[in-house]
Amino acid sequence: MDTDTIKRRIELIEKLQGEIKIAKDMLNEALTNDSAYTDAAEEAKVASSKKKQILSEIYNQPANNKLQVEIKENRDEIMTLKEMLSEELIEYRIERKSEVIEVTDGSQRGFKFSVRLTAKK
Length: 121
Prior knowledge:
With 121 residues, this protein is mainly α. It contains three helices and two strands; from the N terminus they run αααββ. It has helices at residues 3-32, 35-59, 62-96, and strands spanning 100-102, 108-110. The protein has a two-stranded antiparallel sheet. It is flat, with a radius of gyration of 24 Å. The chain starts with a helix and ends in an 11-residue tail after the last strand. The mean pLDDT is 94.
């Protein structure tokens, strides 16, 4: 693959992202200059604050607090298991040259790899 092609594609992506940012800024400015929108936004802010307060009261009940802890622990466990599964699937792909695996119920599942470009620090 030609690196010049990659560089041009990166430049094009960054240019389009810049255009999106400018357009979003223009839309946000149009919204903030509209009095009907700002009034509705203020009403929504008040309602949201009330909703947040009620939500907090419900979540702080002992039974619900216990459920929150259980949810957090399970999410942490899922994240760890997914990281381990990713490593295992990479090894599986290298060893078997396949992106399809049979799971315990007999069905097959496919998997794919994803690459993301990040800034080098």
